[in-house]
Design a protein that fits this description.
mainly alpha, globular, 152 residues
């Protein structure tokens, strides 16, 4: 297994399970209803639905950047409003989070391992730093969602 494949494996665990840190995104969101996703049990904190939308955005942004695009994120795209008119919309949001995460995982697995430590154009960061940062970002927000699920 090369380093890109190892990173992809960690992304897979963060999304779907068998991570030593605790529940994956899939496990955390299992059983969360639309109503629970929209609750704000901690004043000033984001809702689970808002966090899911935010995480979905960043799965796409990092994937696009790995594919050579210079994806930029507006404030509205970074934390999109969670507009969930019904349970079906919530189910679509969860499926989209997992699908964009899987697409990112696949992109990372296919990324040339020899390029991981190259500097990204115009930045002090490397491709490895981008992927590792996104993995940390995923885990941070999955943890937030897990706490909100318990608090709800």
């Amino acid at each position: 297994m090369n380093e890109s494949e190892r990173l992809a494996d960690q992304l897979e665990k963060a999304l779907n399970g068998e991570a030593w840190h605790g529940p994956s995104w899939r496990e955390t969101l299992d059983g969360v209803t639309r109503d629970a996703a929209l609750k704000r049990p901690i004043a000033g904190a984001h809702t689970i639905a808002e966090i899911v939308a935010h995480a979905t955005t960043w799965h796409d942004v990092v994937r696009l950047r790995l594919n050579g695009e210079s994806a930029q994120v507006s404030e509205a795209e970074d934390w999109p409003e969670a507009r969930l008119r019904d349970d079906a919309a919530w189910n679509v949001a969860v499926k989209r989070l997992l699908a964009t995460g899987q697409a990112l995982r696949d992109t990372v697995a296919a990324f040339p391992a020899a390029r991981l430590h190259e500097r990204r154009p115009g930045l002090e960061d490397t491709w490895y730093g981008l992927v590792l940062g996104q993995l940390q970002h995923m885990l941070y927000h999955a943890g937030q969602a897990a706490i909100l699920k318990k608090a709800g």
